[in-house]
Amino acid sequence: MPASEAYVFGQIVLSTIHKLAGQFPQADGYGEIERSFLCPGGQGMNAAMVLSGLGVKTAIGGPNWGTETAEVLDRYAARYGIDTSGIVRDSGYAGLRDIAFVAESSRTVFGRFRALYTDKTHRWCEPDGAAIRAARVVAIDPYFASSSDAAARLASDAGVPYVTIDCPHDGYLHRNAAATVVSSEYWRPAYPGQTAGEVISAYAKQSTGLTIFTAGSGQIQCARRGRPVFAVEPYRVEAVSTLGAGDTFRAGVVYGVLKGWEDERVVRFAAAVAAILCTRLPIADNLTTLAEANAFIENGPSAKSHP
């Protein structure tokens, strides 16, 4: 296949998504299901699909595809032209699945992700060095132990910029990234007793890349070594679901890095892509095009930035 512009080494699951009527029920309660979907999910697959929707030829690597997951994953990959030649098809493995419940103001996910790490042989492929060297940008999830670091080293050695998420501030993955997106769900338990300002400062000191702290619908904090921290207000939309919002935000950052944009433009574009997809469910069937993203930024409510 022709070389891809982007290579994504990340989490891939087959998701069963249930859209609930009202809030998620408390224990011993009852919830009504309005709609259900069976489609790809996971940080890596969502990023690959979003990039494809934006017109970026993308290749992917990550968890093995099993007997219960490969058919649907292959169908969507073919639909969006995603190169899966590096994926391992494992006939002795059911595959990685999760169940997500999307309620009025929350999303709750149940999975068996520990199975990736408890088997004697891990259930993911190694990063594709040839695909990384041929790419113009790489996205790397931190969930695959030494394999994630190996992907980062391959990209660094090849001079290909990469974007990562939710990793320690002092590890190789962050130190050498073009951009790192860190969620509040990650850094608060990872750095207890510290403020957002203290933690983002620690990240900025360790890397010359862009560090982005997200907080759901809250303010986006951004830092780069030697420059003042700046903040961007996310776009306000009537959200149908926040499931995968962080994945789509990261995909927007990858797109901006690919295009060589300056920091604020990268963050505003990523915020726009995430906002649009929060109005749709599921991501896999409702990708944002580049024309839609540009029109949203031009005509929609602005994402303000300030020191």
Protein described:
The protein has helices at residues 43-53, 70-79, 115-118, 129-134, 145-158, 172-175, 184-190, 196-206, 245-259, 263-277, 290-299; strands at residues 6-9, 13-21, 32-41, 58-61, 97-102, 107-111, 137-140, 162-165, 179-183, 210-214, 220-223, 230-232, 305-306. With 307 residues, the protein is α/β, with parallel strands linked by helices. The chain has one domain (6-306): Ribokinase (UDP-N-acetylmuramoyl-L-alanine:D-glutamate ligase, 3-Layer(aba) Sandwich). The strands form 2 sheets. A 9-stranded mixed sheet has the order 4-1-7-8-9-10-11-12-13, sandwiched between helices. Strand 5 (97-102) and strand 6 (107-111) form a beta hairpin. The protein is globular and about 50 Å long.
Write a short abstract of this structure.
This protein has helices spanning 43-53, 70-79, 115-118, 129-134, 145-158, 172-175, 184-190, 196-206, 245-259, 263-277, 290-299; strands spanning 6-9, 13-21, 32-41, 58-61, 97-102, 107-111, 137-140, 162-165, 179-183, 210-214, 220-223, 230-232, 305-306.
Structural descriptors:
35% helix; alpha/beta; single chain; 13 strands; UDP-N-acetylmuramoyl-L-alanine:D-glutamate ligase; globular
List the SSEs and their pairings:
Elements: E1 6-9, E2 13-21, E3 32-41, H1 43-53, E4 58-61, H2 70-79, E5 97-102, E6 107-111, H3 115-118, H4 129-134, E7 137-140, H5 145-158, E8 162-165, H6 172-175, E9 179-183, H7 184-190, H8 196-206, E10 210-214, E11 220-223, E12 230-232, H9 245-259, H10 263-277, H11 290-299, E13 305-306
Parallel strand pairs: 1-4, 1-7, 2-5, 7-8, 8-9, 9-10
Antiparallel strand pairs: 2-3, 5-6, 10-11, 11-12, 12-13
